[in-house]
Amino acid sequence: MLESMVAIPEAVKKAKESAQSVFEVPLAGIRLEDLYSGIADDQPVWFITLSIPRSVDFGVFAAPGHYGGRDYKTFTVSRDTGEVIAIKIREFAAA
Question: Of 14, 15, 22, 37, which one has the greatest count of Cβ atoms within 10 A?
Fold first, then answer.
């Protein structure tokens, strides 16, 4: 018997909605960077890396919506339920 799994588009949507809520950034500014399946805490998950615009604070000279660079976060999403289980900072190896 095949179990119902959350499809990739739905998992990405859940991760983006979570990023928008937690990091208070516009949904349009969130980009999918990487996605793969795996196991976390003995359950099947999607590991979804999103890049999120980094806000720049110029004090009184700040322009609304001005961003500088991107931060990368990996969202662990349950393949069974679609629930976001964890959010981690994505670290890159030095070149």
Answer: 15
- For residues 55 and 76, the answer to whether their CB atoms sit within 8 Å is no
The continuous run of DSSP H or E covering 72 comes out as: strand 67-78
Of the candidates 90, 84, 91, the one whose C-alpha atom is nearest the C-alpha of residue 13 is: 84
73: which 2 tokens? 């976060």
Give me 38's structure tokens.
């795996």
> What pTM, to 2 d.p., does this model score?
0.81
Q: What are the backbone dihedrals phi and psi of residue 7, each rounded to the nearest 5 degrees, phi first?
A: -70, 160
pLDDT tens string 48-86: 999 998 865 555 555 555 556 889 999 999 999 999 999
Residue 92, both tokens: 């890159």
